[in-house]
Design goal:
Length: 299
């Protein structure tokens, strides 16, 4: 159903709008079915053959491996060389074209911002029909926050039944960069800072520290943990550098007493807090204190 393609694109745009990234639009294209792609592959190879020596080294390799990827190369030389290149949309079967028109009609009905971009091809053979990306232009050449499309052949290629599918993936790093550029990181994480840094004291406490970290994360807290075997002083410096609100110190003495030493990294105060609900309540309290202080300091 082409409406699934449109629903997926709407879902992704709503997700980014929920993060505060407004004004984004989808770039969409259709690469048809396998027959369309096989036919268009030969069209592209014929068109690029006279230009092969002028392409960048990566695109010369792509010519034989996956000629479609030349269409989204970011190298300026290749962008110039593909001016006037044939487009997928001009070589689709009537059935594939009808599918794409239905996707566009649904997007129009839902008032989803989009534009057709023939350079969107995606790089994997299991894509069929609709492909899309969500760019954030301020990132420059590699601006895609998200990409996806229809995967009608994927399940069968993996040994399952022949079923249609749609899906997408989101780039965590470009999304975080975009949020930072828009000044939105503080809004999408509690207080904009990690709640705590877990500091096991001594190798014998590492396993218990890891268990406690996972427990607190499952309770909704952002807790960092060092996996590089740093010493106590280095871990505390790392906690401060990461702007954690608290350091949770867990040594042999604390383990025997069933407590965790909570060091407020803003005030420098330490308190022993029983592990469990009391510890979660303390971290929640520090989070609220930081949020209240931020609001008081706001103009």
């Amino acid at each position: 159903d082409p409406r699934l393609d449109a629903e997926m694109i709407l879902l992704v745009l709503d997700f980014f709008e929920g993060l505060g990234l407004r004004g984004l639009e989808a770039r969409i294209n259709s690469i048809g079915d396998k027959t369309d792609r096989d036919r268009f592959r030969e069209v592209l190879k014929e068109w690029f053959r006279p230009k092969l020596d002028d392409l960048c080294p990566l695109c010369r390799d792509r010519y034989n491996r996956n000629v479609f990827r030349i269409l989204d190369c970011k190298v300026e030389t290749c962008k110039e060389l593909r001016r006037g290149v044939p487009e997928f949309l001009d070589h689709l079967s009537p059935e594939s074209l009808a599918h794409f028109e239905a996707v566009k009609k649904t997007l129009d009905m839902l008032e989803v911002p989009y534009r057709v971009d023939p350079s969107i091809v995606r790089g994997f053979d299991y894509y069929t029909h609709t492909v899309f990306e969500i760019p954030y232009e301020k990132l420059g050449a590699r601006s895609a926050l998200c990409g996806g499309g229809r995967y009608d052949d994927l399940i069968a290629e993996l040994g399952g039944p022949s079923l249609g599918a749609v899906g997408f993936s989101i780039g965590v790093t470009p999304t975080l960069i975009a949020l930072e550029m828009e000044g939105l990181l503080e809004e999408v994480s509690p207080g904009g800072r990690p709640d705590a840094f877990l500091v096991p004291i001594g190798p014998e406490q590492e396993e218990e520290g890891f268990r406690l970290t996972v427990t607190l994360r499952r309770a909704g807290f952002t807790v960092l943990l060092d996996h590089q075997g740093k010493g106590l002083r280095a871990r505390l410096k790392l906690a401060a550098r990461e702007r954690c609100r608290a350091a949770l110190l867990l040594g042999e003495e604390e383990r025997k007493r069933g407590v965790v030493k909570v060091r407020d990294l803003d005030k420098g105060e330490e308190t022993d807090v029983p592990a469990g609900p009391e510890l979660e309540a303390r971290l929640r309290s520090l989070r609220e204190e930081a949020r209240a202080g931020s609001e008081e300091g706001a103009p």
